[in-house]
Amino acid sequence: MTENIEAIVLGHTKFGENSVVVHTLSEAYGRRGFLVCVGKKAGMALLLPMNILEMDIVPNPKSTLWSARNLTARDPLNGIRNNLYKNTMSLFLSEVLLRTVKDGQMEDGLFPWCVRSILTLDGLENDFSNFHIRFLLEFADALGFRPTFEDVAPFAEKHLQQLKPFLSAGFSESMLIPLRGKERNALCEDILRYLEYHTESAIRVQSLAVLREVFG
C-alpha cells in the first residue's frame, strides 16, 4: 500500500545502474533514504539539494530500504535555481542537514521550518548574503537548543562582535548586518562547531569550501 508524502531532498547516493538512494527529510519519516529508479538524466533535476518533492512511498516488507515513486516538485524554486549564489547556498544548507540530522531521527517541527526557510530563500530578491548564518542559528533552535550569547561565546571568541547582532535581530534586520565574505565564512565555521558540540556529530561540510569561493 503506497503513501503519498512531502519530502525535502538532502542528497543522493548511486545504487546500481539505474537507481539512487535519495536522502530526505519529511514530517512522516524524519531523516530517511528511499530507493528511486532514475532512467533519464532529466529526472535527476528533481533530486537537486533542498528540492521539496511529493512522492509515493512503497513499503518493502523484506527490507528497511523502501522505494519512492512518482516524484514531482511541489515548488519550482526558480528563485534558487536561477541564481548561482542561492544555488550554492542551498547546497551548503542541505549538506548541513544531511550531516547533522541522523538517519531515522525525528524532530518535531523541523520539516515545516525547513520548508519555510527554503521558500523564504527562494523568494528573496536581494540582501540574502547573510541567509545561511541566520539559517544555522534557527536550525539550532529547531533542534531544541536556542543559541544565546553566553552559549555561543566559547565557539566564536574572535568573532563575537560580528555574531552578537544576529542573536537579537529579527530576520529582516539580520539580512542587513554588514559583513565581509571572510567574516561570514568565519561565523559559519564557528556556528558549525557549536552545532557539533550540541548534536555530538562531526559535521564535515565539504560544500563550505564552494560557498567560501563563491561569496569570497
Furnish the topology, listing elements before pairings:
Blueprint lengths: L2 E12 L4 E8 L3 E8 L14 E7 L8 E7 L4 H4 L2 H17 L9 H14 L7 H12 L6 H4 L7 H4 L7 H5 L5 H19 L7 H9 L1
Antiparallel strand pairs: 1-2, 1-4, 2-3, 4-5
Helix pairs in contact: 2-9, 3-4, 4-8
Descriptive overview:
Helices cover 41% and strands 19% of the residues. The chain is of the alpha+beta class and 216 residues long.
In short:
The chain has 216 residues and is an alpha+beta fold. The chain contains nine helices and five strands. It has two domains: 3-73, OB fold (Dihydrolipoamide Acetyltransferase, E2P) (Beta Barrel), CATH 2.40.50; 78-215, Up-down Bundle (de novo design (two linked rop proteins)), CATH 1.20.1440.
Strand and helix order: EEEEEHHHHHHHHH
Helix content: 40-55%
So how many helices? Answer: 9
CATH architecture of the largest domain: Up-down Bundle
Question: What is the end-to-end distance?
Answer: 50 Å
**Overall structural domain count:** 2
Strand order of the largest sheet: 3-2-1-4-5
The assigned structural class equals alpha+beta
Oligomeric organization of the protein chains: single chain
Shape: globular
Main sheet makeup: 5 strands, antiparallel
Low confidence ranges: none
- pLDDT average, as an integer? 94
CATH class of the largest domain: Mainly Alpha
Strand tally, please?
5
Which strand-content bin applies to the residues? 15-25%
CATH topology of the largest domain: de novo design (two linked rop proteins)
Report the C-alpha radius of gyration, rounded: 18 Å
